[in-house]
Design goal:
133 residues, mainly alpha, 77% helix
Length: 133
């Protein structure tokens, strides 16, 4: 969508946008929104005390996804070591959040959705790690 068009139009990219990185950026932003929404939905549940760890991991994942999407979007100059580190951290956060959400997925549809989105985002971060060097 717009991510691809914006990055391709960047003067330092010269029209060459890596599809794995584009997908990662898009999924990071999607995952940040989904995790924030899941944490909010968990807070509305009657059993909110039992969902404290889920809320924490969702919020941590949302913050890392937001930061990862932002750093991966920047094309001016280079900061490969930091980008690789945050991609790896985002993959880890997504895996932890997905695992926790799966514990609650049978009772809460929002947790099931969140686990699926986190799995996709973690996979996209892993793929992007393969092309960032």
């Amino acid at each position: 969508m717009h991510v691809q068009n914006m990055i391709r139009s960047h003067p330092d990219v010269g029209g060459n946008a890596d599809e794995a990185l584009i997908r990662c950026i898009e999924l990071c932003h999607d995952c940040a929104q989904t995790c924030t929404s899941c944490a909010d939905a968990c807070l509305a549940e009657d059993m909110v005390r039992d969902l404290r760890q889920c809320i924490r991991l969702c919020l941590d994942c949302a913050d890392l996804c937001t930061a990862t999407g932002a750093l991966a979007t920047r094309r001016t100059g280079q900061n490969v070591e930091v980008l690789r580190a945050i991609l790896a951290a985002c993959e880890t956060a997504c895996a932890a959040c997905a695992a926790e959400c799966r514990h609650h997925a049978d009772m809460h549809a929002h947790c099931k959705i969140c686990a699926e989105v986190c799995d996709a985002c973690g996979g996209a971060c892993r793929e992007a790690l393969g092309v960032v060097h």
